[in-house]
Design a protein that fits this description.
Order of helices and strands: HHHHHHHHHHHH
Number of helices: 12
Number of strands: 0
Mean pLDDT: 89
Shape: globular
Helix content: over 70%
Distance between the termini: 36 Å
Largest sheet: none
């Protein structure tokens, strides 16, 4: 509850800061609307030419797209801005203040700046999700929707943990811009269903960098495309490994961090 109250204060501060520059806020919202439109138009154009894509029906594809926008909105809201600013904390010694404050330094480093522009993305994703569920018969009852929500949040947790783990390598490299782009390019592999890729790349996003666990596998579990205990356990295993990796890298990184006076 203490961290919830802290985050609400941070959210209020971020919203006030955004509204001080209203034109920039509107510009950022416009950029997000263009990005969402390109995603929708991309799949719409392809589905006009083919009734199915990699064995996915039109309804399943749109369910995936709305889920992807939803997860990306979570990523943009909680993680993205903090990830971009992380190397500045290391280079300028600002991490010293996070380590001295009476709160988790990891929480302050990666969740201190909410991106309020992502509220628009949430709205668009929920609108597209509602349209998909009302226009296509996906045979999804309340239990299936609950399964989707559980695994999609689990996928976001895995995404956030991998983001924190890779970005925390900046404790050794100091400059994190290359790490940010490296993570982002791997993350983009999850923007398409795993069945769209060739076999070796499909295996890579299932095992090497488990981007399929973010969106593709949760959507397939909810729609019945995947079943069985192994697939039900797969996102849990990925999440546990990702969180463990992030925790180990963070703790070791804090130990080697020498501060502003080094």
């Amino acid at each position: 509850m203490r961290y919830v109250l802290i985050y609400m204060a941070l959210l209020k501060n971020a919203l006030i800061r955004q509204l001080e520059f209203r034109l920039n806020f509107l510009g950022s919202t416009l950029c997000e609307s263009v990005w969402i439109s390109t995603q929708v138009l991309f799949f719409h154009s392809i589905l006009r030419l083919a009734p199915t894509l990699g064995g996915w029906t039109e309804g399943q594809v749109w369910f995936f797209v709305s889920s992807y926008i939803f997860v990306d909105a979570l990523y943009m809201f909680f993680i993205h801005e903090n990830m971009k600013n992380f190397s500045g904390l290391i280079k300028n010694g600002l991490m010293d203040f996070h380590l001295l404050r009476p709160a988790s330094a990891l929480f302050l480093a990666f969740f201190r700046i909410p991106n309020t522009n992502a509220v628009f993305n949430f709205t668009m994703s929920l609108g597209l999700l509602t349209w998909t569920l009302t226009h296509f018969d996906l045979h999804m009852g309340p239990a299936h929707f609950g399964l989707w929500l559980f695994y999609i949040l689990l996928g976001f947790t895995s995404l956030a943990a991998l983001c924190i783990g890779i970005t925390s390598l900046a404790f050794w490299t100091t400059q994190a811009s290359s790490l940010t782009w490296f993570f982002f390019e791997l993350y983009r592999l999850g923007s398409r269903p795993q069945d769209f890729y060739v076999l070796w790349l499909k295996r890579f996003i299932l095992v090497g960098f488990p981007a399929a666990a973010f969106i593709s596998v949760p959507v397939q579990l909810a729609t019945g495309r995947l079943s069985g205990p192994l697939w039900l356990l797969y996102p849990l295993i990925v999440c546990a490994l990702a969180v463990t990796m992030a925790a180990v890298i963070w703790r070791r990184g804090v130990r080697v961090y020498e501060g502003a006076l080094s």
